[in-house]
């Protein structure tokens, strides 16, 4: 039985004059500790599916379970990291990263110490009393990662968390997030438009076809790449071969402009 089970998800958006089907017959399972990616053209329903997994959107049909629990019971075990860091500008970094613990009545002296220690571990030592405006974009995303991990979620959902960053910062954050999640044994799902990012970070990639979104093809990343950091995976001899294969499949399903 999969750690996360997505069973025959179908979702349609209704308006007064139309009905638009975003997802059709999506079924997949994710094992604990896996890192998977959803890849596909704009409008293929990747973020809609992520919102359903997060429990933010109820699907028209189908169900999602986490460790055999419904999302209503398991929602507190899911962390969400977005493209924007959404740190509160009027709160210090320390106040921001402890916010989830405070809102869930989980803030103890031990958890506070562990969260501050994680902040230092990912290279943000000494910024606790600073405000978000005093940090770079990459530093704010690191702080957002700490805030997400502070509540010890079992599943992390990453919705294009590096897309607003410059390329060098993006590569550094890929390594940092990958290493951090592996060290904590976390399960993660990444939504991305970046083929290279999906290859470098994932154990498995689901390629979605557009309108309505369906799983068009699944790619399992070779163990040789999965054992490497994302930066070094990009330099492996198998990387360009996998990239070209996914690129060709993506070209087949990309809607004409």
TrEMBL record:
Classification via Pfam families: ABC_tran
MF terms in GO: ATP binding; ATP hydrolysis activity
Gene3D superfamilies according to UniProt: P-loop containing nucleotide triphosphate hydrolases (3.40.50.300)
InterPro entries: AAA+_ATPase, ABC_transporter-like_ATP-bd, ABC_transporter-like_CS, ABC_transporter_ATP-bind, P-loop_NTPase
SMART domains xrefs: AAA (SM00382)
Gene giving rise to this polypeptide: ytlC
Domain ABC transporter: 4-235
Key words, A-Z: ATP-binding, Nucleotide-binding, Transport
Protein name per the record: ABC transporter ATP-binding protein YtlC
Species annotation: Robertmurraya siralis
